[in-house]
Amino acid sequence: MAKWSGIVAVVSLTVFLMSVTAATVLPIHPYLKVEDTFISQLYDTSNYGFLQIDNGLARTPQMGWSTWNFFACNINETVIKETADALISTGLASLGYTYVNIDDCWSRSTRNLKGEMIPDPKTFPSGIKALADYVHSKGLKLGVYSDAGIFTCQVRPGSLFQEKNDAELWASWGVDYLKYDNCYNLGLPPQKRYPPMRDALNDTGRTIFYALCEWGIDDPAKWAGKIGNSWRTTDDINDTWISMTTIADINNKWASYAGPGGWNDPDMLEVGNGGMNYHEYKGHFSVWALMKAPLIIGCDVRNITADTLKILSNKEVIAVDQDPLGVQGRRVYASGPDGCQQVWAGPLSRNRFAMVLWNRCSKAATITANWSAIGLEPSISVSMRDLWKHEVVSENTVGSFSARVNAHGCEMYILTPRRATRSSI
Ligand SMILES: *[C@@H]1O[C@H](CO)[C@@H](O)[C@H](O)[C@H]1NC(C)=O
Ligand SMILES: *[C@@H]1O[C@H](CO)[C@@H](O)[C@H](O)[C@H]1NC(C)=O
Ligand SMILES: *[C@@H]1O[C@H](CO)[C@@H](O)[C@H](O)[C@H]1NC(C)=O
Ligand SMILES: *[C@@H]1O[C@H](CO)[C@@H](O)[C@H](O)[C@H]1NC(C)=O
Ligand SMILES: *[C@@H]1O[C@H](CO)[C@@H](O)[C@H](O)[C@H]1NC(C)=O
């Protein structure tokens, strides 16, 4: 058994190494054999790695923090430095949350006489370069924001037709990440407005993460893979249960297009902002991780509660998001009133699966995941590790697994088959 799993590990690692060096490779997973129609439909990866941008970034979904969800326009260099410090002192940075992203409102509302964007002198008197230096000195990375239109959504200068100069300026400041929004776009198609910034960023010679924020309007999953490292699939999230669940469902439709190099982005995390309860935030975080979503914290990290920190720093859930196989998990089964008792699952490296039992009903419920629904042979014996209890809850589960789940809550597991199946060697 031990010897056998060693062979599997070596094979999976080889496959992974092949997939990070080549531009487009289908994931090879014993449960994703092409000839197995049911499995390949269930976890359709036919568009996996489809024309991903090749700038070396986003081998796994990006992680960090952004100003927008909590602070909106009420930002300044102090709050960003204090947040960088807090990411370190809370331990979140060492778990992978390394991008410190300034969203809209960092720029003055007009360009200078040379046509350059300038940081708002009232709120960023030391400039963005000084902030980047500070963030870098902490081992973190700095992100800025602009817009593929003539203005940003908060009516600061946009970068449409000014891509080259703006990209050069940001690169000269040491910027590592760009979120590129979609306001005031003159009605021009996004397929025309987003590539020039990709090329401008590339021409700077600085490696800059390119996050498209086109709101999912023109189905960016279908074309953005060759343009950016992630693309928003939906309208903005807000701090409500209805918004979060609606967005999860939309993002789920595009699962087959995610892969190393380019990810579907269901928008930043609201965990800790107060509009949802502990169970709801736990589900938000678990499902985002299962969907290989960017994990961009959106709360005030300087004033984080123990419960919020417990959710955001769950290493085992983060590891699902960052799994090197990079296949987006998805909803595989729903039952109960309006299908509110849901099973979400996805394949992981080393022949494992991740699974979330998500109770979207308003009452506690027992949710059952039948092996056939998640793509396992009924006779397979599985070891179940509970990622919120941090323990193996069953060494030998066959056929199906059931758990009681709180109203609007979830449970999350890693399933490790105890013997190989589907002729994996
Ligand atoms: C900076 O922004 C924070 C968060 O909005 C605010 O609490 C603080 O007063 C601001 N500081 C200055 C100097 O404007
Ligand atoms: C620019 O693009 C080329 C081709 O896709 C890529 O190999 C290179 O790493 C990119 N450079 C930067 C700085 O992003
Ligand atoms: C929050 O999102 C929901 C669902 O998308 C939407 O109906 C609602 O209007 C939004 N609320 C706010 C305050 O934007
Ligand atoms: C810190 O968070 C608590 C709620 O968790 C809130 O009541 C308090 O106002 C916050 N403090 C600051 C300085 O934002
Ligand atoms: C699982 O589903 C299959 C097919 O729908 C069904 O035949 C079987 O009885 C189910 N098994 C369990 C343990 O619920």
Automatic annotation (TrEMBL):
One GO BP annotation of this record: carbohydrate metabolic process
Q: Residue span of the signal peptide, if any?
A: 1-22
Record-linked CDD domains: GH27
Q: What class of enzyme is it?
A: hydrolase
> In the Enzyme Commission scheme, what number(s) does this protein have?
3.2.1.22
Give the record's keywords alphabetically: Disulfide bond, Glycosidase, Hydrolase, Signal
Pfam families reported for this sequence: Melibiase_2 (PF16499), Melibiase_C (PF17801)
One GO molecular function term? alpha-galactosidase activity
Q: Which reaction does it catalyse?
A: Hydrolysis of terminal, non-reducing alpha-D-galactose residues in alpha-D-galactosides, including galactose oligosaccharides, galactomannans and galactolipids
Q: Which residues form the Alpha galactosidase C-terminal domain?
A: 338-415
What PANTHER family does the record tag this protein with? ALPHA-GALACTOSIDASE MEL1, ALPHA-GALACTOSIDASE/ALPHA-N-ACETYLGALACTOSAMINIDASE
What family is reported?
Belongs to the glycosyl hydrolase 27 family.
- What name does this protein carry? Alpha-galactosidase
Organism annotation: Solanum stoloniferum
